[in-house]
């Protein structure tokens, strides 16, 4: 009797409910939204506006981006705020993984940094391709330099260049060395407003609308190379991480479609980022 009762529980209507639940489970991933901790340089460049709709159209997964300096983005991800980290400070990214906050780090794309300043170039920087030598000349001239001062990837690169130049700009803080504590676009606005030189990633510079009489003065130094990496936040540390949807985004960005989407992004006929993932696919 009990056996028959159990069999009767599985009615055609019940079968339809179970089937709907299975279909719903398959659709759940497509309806998910992930949070990517990333940088003001990628956001200011317009890259995400170009590539994210393509990913969402393919997968149904929405991507919300928090755009801050790399240092803050890493800190946010360490606190479990985010599913994926996409930033540009390789040593800090590797440390993030080594300390158990991220699953694995992959190269995703690169561009470069440039030093910009007024067309008149009072410090005479346009005569050198050596970025550290250019900063030494700038310091000697007492010309104003606007630094992000925010522990971003750009700021970390700038500090490494100052160290190579033999100049400690902290001694001139508030004098010719001005720290904005702002993102890249805001720092460029400040620089133009005060006639200061600044270091910027090329993508933000190309997309920057308030150039005035400013131009690129120093470029081409190998030390100005700017690599971006992508990391899934480790669910072993933060169980709230949306692993499947986050990994789907990483797989797409590193796969043929995502890399092509990155390469196809141009402003004024100029390519802003160069995809360079060379590992196995899907990534391991």
What does the model show?
The protein has helices at 2-9, 12-28, 40-45, 47-59, 70-78, 90-98, 131-141, 153-165, 184-194, 202-207, 243-254, 256-264; strands spanning 33-39, 62-68, 84-87, 102-118, 145-147, 177-179, 197-201, 214-218, 225-233, 266-267, 270-271, 274-275. It is α/β, with parallel strands linked by helices and 284 residues long. The chain folds into two domains: 32-111 and 227-275, Periplasmic binding protein-like II (D-Maltodextrin-Binding Protein, domain 2, 3-Layer(aba) Sandwich); 112-224, Periplasmic binding protein-like II (D-Maltodextrin-Binding Protein, domain 2, 3-Layer(aba) Sandwich), CATH 3.40.190.10. The strands form two sheets. Strands 1, 2, 3, 4, 5, 6, 7, 8, 9 and 12 form a ten-stranded mixed β-sheet that branches. A two-stranded antiparallel ribbon has the order 10-11. The termini are far apart. Residues 1-12 have low confidence and may be disordered.
């Amino acid at each position: 009797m009990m056996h028959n009762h159990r069999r009767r529980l599985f009615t055609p209507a019940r079968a339809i409910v179970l089937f709907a639940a299975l279909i719903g489970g398959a659709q759940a991933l497509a309806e998910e939204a992930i949070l990517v901790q990333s940088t003001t340089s990628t956001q200011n460049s317009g890259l995400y506006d170009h590539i994210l709709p393509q990913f969402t159209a393919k997968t149904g997964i929405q991507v919300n981006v928090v755009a801050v300096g790399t240092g803050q983005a890493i800190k946010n991800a360490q606190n479990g705020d985010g599913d994926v980290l996409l930033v540009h400070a390789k040593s800090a990214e590797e440390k993030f993984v080594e300390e158990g906050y991220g699953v694995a780090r992959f190269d995703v794309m690169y561009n470069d940094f440039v030093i910009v300043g007024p067309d008149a170039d009072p410090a005479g920087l346009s005569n050198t391709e050596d970025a550290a030598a250019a900063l030494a000349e700038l310091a000697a001239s007492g010309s104003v330099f606007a630094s992000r001062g925010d522990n971003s990837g750009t700021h970390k690169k700038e500090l490494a260049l100052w160290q190579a130049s033999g100049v400690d700009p902290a001694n001139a803080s508030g004098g010719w060395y001005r720290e904005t504590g702002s993102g890249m676009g805001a720092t460029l606005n400040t620089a133009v407003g005060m006639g200061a030189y600044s270091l910027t990633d090329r993508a933000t510079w190309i997309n920057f609308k308030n150039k005035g009489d400013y131009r690129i003065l120093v470029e081409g130094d190998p030390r100005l190379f700017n690599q971006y990496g992508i990391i899934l936040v480790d669910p072993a540390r933060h169980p709230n991480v949306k692993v499947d949807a986050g990994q789907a985004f990483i797989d797409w960005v590193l796969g043929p479609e995502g890399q092509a989407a990155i390469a196809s992004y141009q402003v004024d006929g100029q390519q802003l980022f160069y995809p360079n993932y060379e590992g196995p696919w899907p990534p391991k």
